[in-house]
């Protein structure tokens, strides 16, 4: 099983030209060099947003779900410190360069850090249904008692 590649922002910033265009969106690193000419919004905006975190730029445009679905095709890794789950669901691999073929290309999914519920949450998950059932039982018993008239 291959490791997920982790890049620093400094490493990403070394790729900010028309021939080598990377950026970060939501903690994930994308190499969009091969996509530049296909991008419906034009290549200039992508080059301008490259070498840095382009999350804001990407979101501000209000990209369609289809556009968001295309992101995985260009995923090359994650930014260091990223604590999420990355599911890789590549529809197509349009390139043949080494850079566009990350080591984890064939893996269906990666779990970088799985957040387990805390002990407190687990106790709550157990207690809350019990309290509800208990309360319902008490309520039922109280309602059954005859009302005493003076
Ligand atoms: C891998 C990353 C990206 C993909 C796959 C992508 C894909 C697309 C697609 C499919 C469209 C057509 C409209 C839609 O379906 O939403 C589009 C439009 C556009 N994109 Fe991107 N995009 C990416 C990154 C960016 C970034 C980083 C910027 C900004 C710096 C940007 C700016 C634009 C603009 C300005 C349009 C035109 C919007 C319009 O005409 O209404 N895109 N993009």
UniProtKB/TrEMBL annotation:
Residues 4-80 form the Cytochrome b5 heme-binding domain. It holds the Pfam family Cyt-b5. Gene3D superfamilies: Cytochrome b5-like heme/steroid binding domain (3.10.120.10). One of its GO terms (cellular component) is membrane. Its main location: membrane. It is found in: Membrane. It comes from the Eukaryota. GO terms for molecular function: heme binding; metal ion binding. InterPro entries: Cyt_B5-like_heme/steroid-bd, Cyt_B5-like_heme/steroid_sf, Cyt_B5_heme-BS, Cytochrome_b5. Keywords: Heme, Iron, Membrane, Metal-binding, Transmembrane. PANTHER family: CYTOCHROME B5, CYTOCHROME B5 A. Belongs to the cytochrome b5 family. This is Cytochrome b5 heme-binding domain-containing protein. The lineage of its organism: Eukaryota, Viridiplantae, Streptophyta, Embryophyta, Tracheophyta.
């Amino acid at each position: 099983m291959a490791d997920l590649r982790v890049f620093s922002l400094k490493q990403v910033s070394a790729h900010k030209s028309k021939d080598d265009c990377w950026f970060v969106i939501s903690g994930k690193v994308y190499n969009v060099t091969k996509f530049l000419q296909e991008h419906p919004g034009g290549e200039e905006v992508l080059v301008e947003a490259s070498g840095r975190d382009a999350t804001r730029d990407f979101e501000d445009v209000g990209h369609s779900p289809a556009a968001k679905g295309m992101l995985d095709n260009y995923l090359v890794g994650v930014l260091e410190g990223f604590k999420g789950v990355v599911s890789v669901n590549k529809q197509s691999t349009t390139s043949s360069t080494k850079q566009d073929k990350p080591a984890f290309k064939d893996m269906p999914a990666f779990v970088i850090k799985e957040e387990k519920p805390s002990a407190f949450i687990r106790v709550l998950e157990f207690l809350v249904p019990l309290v509800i059932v208990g309360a319902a039982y008490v309520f039922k018993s109280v309602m059954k008692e005859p009302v005493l008239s003076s």
